[in-house]
Structures are given as structure tokens and as C-alpha cells.
Amino acid sequence: MSFSGSYRSGEVTFLLKRLPAQEFTSVPEKERLIQSGQRHYSQMLSPEALPSARYMAVFEDACRANNARMAADCLRLAGMVAARRSGAITVVSLARAGTPVGVVVTRLLRERLQREAVHYSVSIVRDRGIDWAALRHILAQGHAPSSIVFVDGWTGKGVIARELALSVSAFNAAQGTGIDNGLYVLSDLAGVAACAASGDDYLIPSSILNATVSGLVSRTVLDERIGPDDFHGCVVYDAFAPHDQSQGFVDALVALAPAGELPSGAPLDARAAAERSRTYLGAATARYGIEDVNLIKPGIGEATRVLLRRVPRLLVLRQAGTPATRHLEVLAEEKQVPIAIDPDLPYHAVSLIRSASDG
Q1: Helix or strand holding residue 274 (H, E)
Q2: Are 232 and 344 part of one and the same domain?
Q3: What pLDDT shows up at residue 173?
């Protein structure tokens, strides 16, 4: 059953199966089960907590400092989408980090670029692929395969972009469709996106909250409760409604989108970004004795996710005390995570996940 979460009707249609609040798995236990191979990360949810008052103050500071840039990048991305699609546009955001971006891009397509656009948000899971049931539903609504564009917030190592390419290609082969398997993002750190507004590691404010900036929707779930014809699942945190920022956040971004001509940016050097990513990951695995590259999360967005919902080993910052990473320092202090400073870091921040073998 589709729904719009805490967004206004018409802003987004979540193609997710609403699940009852399940027995949540603690973060340490989840980490142990993931790293031992006993469970896939998509089969478990850890409980979400509301951010502290101190952390919310940091979020509000981040919005004041960075919303204008995010709004300009959303408008730039909308312009790129419009240039690459003729006729009606079907924005398909990747839940949940892509959802706020998808809401804003769709509204800008409609309101600023006078394009017909509709927005769905669907699940994609590393090693499991995109939700085929959701794609079949979108096509069944009469949307042309050529109208679909996949939107997310950012790339870290490029895992989701590669997963999207593989799973959409497999869907096309099985269904006889021709959906573009490229990913459109605000910031492409890994040099793998089909289209990006920026290649910079900057603080995207929506990256620093969980459900309360994503329509009150949890991370997506693909467990035993999801049948072959079901959408991937989620939990909706209705109890968090008094603290929800989702609608106000996207409204503010749309209002901040610059008037006049579409913002332009320097051409992105995807090859250089990809090489930077490969070089750093190779150096980090050696420096920190890491065997599984999945334990390295580069960039502000990915580093924040680790501190919010994984078991962090170390937070590495290029520089201490900067506005872009203040929220990470607050989280690290609250969770007693050590911080290392590396002036040569090619990103503002990197989080390392603790290996389960470390105890």
C-alpha cells in the first residue's frame, strides 16, 4: 500500500510495505550478525532515537549554513534531469536519503521548469538490488520506462550506484524494458553517478538526521515478511511526528532555490573522483588494518550514518572544529568515539566501523 509519509499528498509516493514496529535489534548485536554473515543488514532494524537538543541545534546551524547551497544544487540537478528527459518525468528517489532530494527536485521541475513530474520513493538494498515490485508498479501506472530517473543524495564509495546499474539492467533484461540505470545525485564523491550537481564533500543538512527528515520512514527492510510481490518494507515512526522536520525542510529548500537562470557549476571530473576514491580506500585498508572495505565510510553523509546507526571504531576528520563536521564531533562525544585528525584526508570526514572480531 503506497503512502506519502509525513509529506503532503502529491509530494512523494512511498512504494514501501508498512510493517508493524518489530522487535528491534540492538546496534552491537546487529553489527555482530552482519559481520558474521548470519544476517543481512536489510533483515534487521535498530531502534531510532530522537536527536538530543544539542544535536538539533547543530542541525539548525547546518540548515542556516548549507540549505542555500543544497537548494542551488537541487535546482541544478532538476535542470540536468529536464535536459535529459523529454515529456513527463518520473522521479524515483532511493529511500530514504534520496527522498528529500526527490521531493525538492520534483517540485522544482514542476514549479520552476514547468515540467510534468511525479515522484516515487523506492527501496534499494546492497547485494539485493532495487525493488522490482516497485518498478513494476510504476510501469503499471502508465509511466514510460524512458521517463524514469533515479535520484539519491550523494555517493560515498559508489556501492549503491553500482547496485542500481546491475539490478536495473537485470530488470530490463527480464521485463523487456529500457529504463536508464544511471544515478542522479547532489554530490558524487566516488565519480560513479550518471549525473551530479557537485563533486564536493559538503554538509547536506538532511544527511545528519534519520526518520525526522525523511517522512518519518525507517531505513528499508527486506526480511522474511516481504513476499515476492510485496514492496520492500519499512517502519513508520508516527510517534516522532511532534519532532518531524520533513515537510518544513523541503519547503525551505524550494523557497531558497535561486531565481533567474539555472545555476551552473564547473564540469565534474568523474575519473579523478573515482581515482581519489580508489587511492584512499587502498591506503586506508593498509593504514588501519581493515580487510573488509565495507567498514570504511568516506564523506560527511556516510560518516554520519555510521555514527547514527552502526558501531563506530574511529572518526577521522581533515580538520577539527569546522562547521561542516561539528555535528560529527557532537555525535562522537555523545557516543564516546575516538577522533583522529588527518590533514591529508581527501574528504572532510571518514568513519570506520568496528570489526566484530575486535570485540
Answers
A1: helix 270-288
A2: no
A3: 98
Q: The domain that contains 288 carries what CATH number?
A: 3.30.1330.30
266-273: Cβ within 8 A, 24+ apart: 268/188, 268/191, 268/196, 268/198, 268/199, 269/191, 269/199, 270/188, 270/191, 270/192, 270/193, 270/199, 271/191, 272/191, 273/188, 273/189, 273/190, 273/191, 273/199
Range of the structural domain that residue 67 is part of:
13-256
Q: Is residue 339 exposed (0-12), middle (13-18) or buried (19+ Cβ within 10 Å)? A: middle
Name 253's Cβ contacts closer than 8 Å, sequence gap at least 6: 67, 70, 71, 74, 100, 104
Cα 102 to Cα 206: distance, rounded to the nearest angstrom: 12
Cβ contacts of 81 within 8 Å, gap of 6 or more: 89, 91, 105, 109, 149, 151, 184, 195
Bridging pattern class, strands 89-94 and 148-155: parallel
Place of cell 585498508: 285
CA distance 165 to 284: 26
- Can you count the helices (H) and strands (E) in the chain? 9, 14
Q: Residue 14: which of 112, 96, 69, 106 has the closest Cα?
A: 96
Does residue 134 contact residue 122 with C-beta atoms inside 8 Å?
A: yes
pLDDT at residue number 181 = 98
Comparing CA positions, the residue from 101, 159, 330, 194 lying closest to residue 315 is 330
Residues 161, 199, single domain; the answer is yes
Task: For residues 224 and 301, state if they share a domain.
Answer: no
Reading the block at residue 146, the C-alpha cell is 524512458
Name the pTM for this structure. 0.93
The three cell numbers of residue 211 are: 526518520
What is the model's pLDDT at position 266? 61
